[in-house]
Protein: UDP-N-acetylmuramoyl-tripeptide--D-alanyl-D-alanine ligase
Organism: Streptomyces tsukubensis
Amino acid sequence: MITLSLTEIAAVVGGQPYDIPDPDRTVTGPVVIDSRAVVPGALFAAFAGASADGHDYAARAVADGACAVLATRPVGVPAIVVPDVTAALGALARHVVESLGATTVALTGSVGKTGTKDLIAQLLARKGPTIYPEGNLNNEIGLPLTALRADTTTEHLVLEMGARYVGDIRYLTELVPPRISVVLNVGTAHIGEFGGREKIAEAKGEIVEALPADGVAVLNADDPLVRAMADRTRARVVFFGESPNAAVRAENVRLTRQGRPAFTLHTPTGCGEVTMRLYGEHHVSNALAAAAVAHELGMPVSEIAGALSEAGTLSRWRMEVTERPDGVTIVNDAYNANPESMRAALRALAAMGQDAQSRGGRTWAVLGLMAELGDEALAEHDAVGRLAVRLNVSKLVAVGGREASWLQLGAYNEGSWGEESVHVSDAQAAADLLRSELRPGDVVLVKASRSAGLERLAQTLIDDAAVAADGRGAGR
């Protein structure tokens, strides 16, 4: 964060100083909400959560080097007391960003936000210092925390903006107004809360309504609901996609034998060949969005193509591929799931399986619930199970309760798989099954909504092979 005194911070957030012996002391470190992340010079923001209250850790934070605590009550150590810590955090973020000359790039979409953010960040980092979210910090707390990491050297600020309700993104754009806004797609994530895709589109479109007249809206030409958002902004519009009318588009899209996408990138200033390190054709659209942003900021197409070909993932549990010593490949995509991302992951698994099957391997889809689908839950889980059959996935393991049973039933009814699709009660049962069944060459996809906790299952499967390898080594 830029250097600010405690007096200046109190003025920005409208807070009252308490127990501060030196009001001119400056915050030189980050703003953190976890006392374990405190470093000397930090500002600790105390939130009262469901299981813990940050105010109870105020003394520890200061003892570990925090200059002060942003709190809703006096805590016996240096503090700036405010009525609402979330609002104060947002006000501080807006003040910091307004004092800098960085270009703010904001993106939203039902699927692919974090992966696209990672790509944009890797491209723009080649042009200059770039701040981006760690993981998917995309709400009223996470977004300010990311913005507050910016300092006087920052040239680009890349931000995710998520929403559960209409108005959420509008609030975030008021905290950190974007210069470039990107909308990836309108899917069914959180459809239970929104009540329909049209409402989701209404919410996502708030990100382009916030643009100034000299800003840029980067919109997916292949999604009709996104394409229509061009009418909701006074900014210049740049379309990306596989549509021939898109200014930044992909042609000759294909997958390598390993399931990695390759394509010819077309821009208004030239073309370039891209072969990505990431897995799955769904990354093509994400790459085009990132390319459009980089092109708008003056990056040559040859450099864009090269950077996309070298880019990896910066965020955990998103198509994270691990090859075990015994020849089994684990694909951990268990951070979250909705119908669109589930279908994309299954297609990626099927593509990876073509190479695996040539070596005698099989594909396993280990899937759990997709949360927050409301009345669409049964139909969507059934459809995913059916898709696994149509893609010739070798084995489906549906993990969990009612939703998992719908996944398994969809697969069974589509292809009469019998023993090829199975429903197990929990992650432990899935681990036991896979331990007894996996063989060299198999590829295992693990995916579900975060609430299912299947990322732990994926890690267990990875650790199993490491333990086995160590055991063999110890016996020699």
Q: What stands out?
A: Residues 454-474 form the longest helix (21 residues).
